[in-house]
Design goal:
transmembrane transporter activity; about 5% strand; amino-acid transport; mainly alpha; BCAA_transport_permease; two-stranded antiparallel ribbon; about 75% helix; ABC transporter involved in vitamin B12 uptake, BtuC
């Protein structure tokens, strides 16, 4: 009985881990794409920024929560600089923004490789572990799904309960009309890009204690982030949660039975099927209902 219980919890634990990874990796990308129409290929580098700053600050003796907060702030500041120097001049030029953010990604990776070396020794995973039957589980990783849901709840509050949220939603619906009514849409775009970059930095900060940090670590996040955004649709608040749940369930099942490679292939096939059946993503089902 204990063996069956531990096996079931192992599946639930793995699902929660995949769900959290997909949500946290995709949120920043979904915010920038959904609100600004910019496909940010440098998303992985914002994640890497958050991870590096977290580890450097943690090794300097700062408490882990403070180190993570500084990682988020550093990524958000980097987002402000990139938006003002590059992205601001490429609105309504989708392919140019794709090339520009791809160039930023390559430059950042090679610069970090020269400055920090091929890898950075990570931090120890906090909170220890617990056991059920023959399986051992990380307490920190078990908390990540709750953190992901909490971040989604904070985003909902930000967009529907604050002045910024009203301005942001008005800009999304009709930027020219919002500008005519007195909104400073350029400032809204800057804050939005900073928000997306900060969310990416949060993903890197949260996963910094769980993995080896290298200049190319963002590549592992960005593939799953794009898959989650494609499946969920541009509406970050409506589409991300169900998309991550569906993809997490599929990845957990396929990985458990057939291995990591088949799990990744399953994610890509799911994205293809969703694009064919629901071009606007699964979020469009909930949007229609509302």
């Amino acid at each position: 009985m204990m063996a069956i219980l531990s096996l079931l919890y192992s599946m639930v634990y793995q699902f929660g881990n995949n769900f959290a990874y997909l949500v946290l990796a995709a949120l920043g990308l979904a915010v920038i794409f959904g609100m600004m129409g910019v496909i940010n290929l440098a998303h992985g580098e914002f994640i890497m920024c958050g991870a590096y700053v977290t580890i450097i600050c943690g090794k300097a003796g700062l408490p882990l929560p403070i180190a993570m907060l500084l990682g988020v702030v550093a990524a958000a500041i980097a987002g402000v600089l990139i938006e003002r120097l590059v992205i601001r001049h490429l609105y309504d030029r989708l392919f140019d923004s794709v090339v520009a953010t791809w160039a930023i990604s390559l430059i950042t990776q090679q610069s970090m490789l020269l400055i920090a070396g091929p890898s950075l020794e990570g931090l120890s995973t906090p909170f220890g572990s617990f056991s059920i039957g023959i399986y051992s589980f990380s307490v920190y990783r078990a908390l990540l799904p709750l953190i992901a849901i909490g971040v989604l709840a904070l985003l909902y509050w930000l967009f529907f309960r604050t002045n910024y949220g009203v301005c942001a939603r008005a800009t999304i619906q009709n930027a020219r009309m919002a500008s005519c009514l007195g909104l400073q849409t350029n400032r809204v775009y800057t804050l939005t890009f900073a928000l997306g970059a900060g969310l990416a930095g949060l993903a890197g900060a949260l996963y910094a204690p769980t993995m080896t940090v290298v200049p190319t670590m963002g590549n592992g996040f960005i593939v799953q982030a794009f898959v989650a955004v494609v499946v969920g649709g541009a509406n970050v608040l409506v589409g991300t949660l169900p998309a991550a749940a569906i993809l997490g369930f599929i990845q957990t099942g396929l990985t458990s039975w057939y291995g990591q490679l088949i799990g990744q292939i399953g994610l890509l096939l799911t994205a293809i099927i969703v694009i064919r059946l629901l071009p606007q993503g699964v979020g469009s089902l909930f949007s229609k209902g509302r």
